[in-house]
Amino acid sequence: MAKFVSLLLLALLGISMVATWLWQKKPSTIWMVKPIHFLLQGNYGPGSLKSSQCPKECTGRCGQTQYHKPCMFFCQKCCAKCLCVPPGYYGNKSVCPCYNNWKTKRGGPKCP
Questions:
Q1: What pTM was computed for the model?
Q2: Measured between alpha carbons, how far is 41 from 43 in angstroms, rounded to an integer?
Q3: Which among 10, 35, 58, 108 is placed 20 to 30 Å from 70, CA to CA?
């Protein structure tokens, strides 16, 4: 039992050291989404944008994809309807329910 506890503590120490090293390296390029404190500040959500802000937000959202043109087209279409773009390059769609729930005819996600 003592060996198990010591191995568990050693593993946790190693994981925290690696996480600290990665965070110090360059957090903006390592993590694909913005930190959670941005979500808690109220900067995101339905109606949080004006339609004139959509191109800038979609440029950020679609900045890392190899399919830039279709991503920008659909992101701007979704942003115009929902007035919201989730933070980060991928995921976080739960922040914008309209953006998350708009589906294609086949049931797939319409918004990137």
A1: 0.59
A2: 6
A3: 35
